[in-house]
Structures are given as C-alpha cells and as structure tokens.
Amino acid sequence: MxxxxxxxxxxxxxxxxxxxxxxxxxxxxxxxxxxxxYWEKLDYSIIKKIQDKFHIxxxxxxxxxxxxxxxxxxxxxxxxPPIEDEEPMSNCCSDPFTFPGWPxxxxxxxxxxxxxxWDPEELEExxxxxxxxxxxxxxxxxxxxx
Length: 146
Description:
The protein has helices spanning 3-16, 44-54, 120-135, and strands at residues 22-26, 31-36, 57-65, 69-77. Strands 1-2-4-3 form a four-stranded antiparallel β-sheet, with helices on one face. Strand 1 and strand 2 (31-36) form a beta hairpin. The chain has three helices and four strands. It is of the alpha+beta class. The protein is 28% helix and 20% strand. It has a domain at 3-77.
C-alpha cells in the first residue's frame, strides 16, 4: 500500500467534512497519526465513513492536559493492529461508548442514548430462541394471533 497516497486520500476526505487543519506523522509500523485542528475530537460517524471507504482502522488516543482539557489524536492503521483489550460496545447500535467509555459512560457514541454493554452470549441466546420459535410453529400461519 502506498502510504503517502493513503495519507493524502484520508486528508482529502477529512477536508470534505470541513476538517482543514490536519497534521500527519508517519510511524514506523503499519500506521500514521492524525491530529485535527488543535487536538479536536472527530465525530464517530466521520471515522466510520473513512474507515469503510479506505478499509483502514482508527484508534483514538486521548491525552488529558491540565490547561487544555482532553486532547485527541488518531492512529490510522492500514493493517489492523493486534487486538488487545477490545472496547465494549453498546447493545443498541453495537458502537463504542462515549468518552471515557464503559462503565464510566453508558452513552452510545452513535445514537447518544443510554445503553448497556453488548454481550455476544445474549445474541446467541436470542438466535437460539428465535430458531426455537420458528421450529415449533407451523408454516400455515395458524399460530398468528395466539
């Protein structure tokens, strides 16, 4: 992958979202770091659109500064980084929680509603329940309205 082209493409895409002051630092591994404006936080919907368009991964880095508050930068990987501790996802939209993350924040970053942590085991149980309902009901529709 041409790293310079990817950096230009991502910068151009950010410009389309009104983000014109962009700083990029290339790292030695399969990534580069973005800083928007004066350490601005990027909206999750923008990150998601760019990730989907270029098949890359963003990792948000947050520094807390006594004078300036929260400072945001983003590591952009064109090959997925090794999985460490996965961030919990909301059970409404399956998106990360707002800063500082679960359990300190129960606000979904996508829909901005209060949510619980998404549990993959719950999904498996739900799928099994639905399969059981389908298997135990006749196809003729006679079970409707009971």
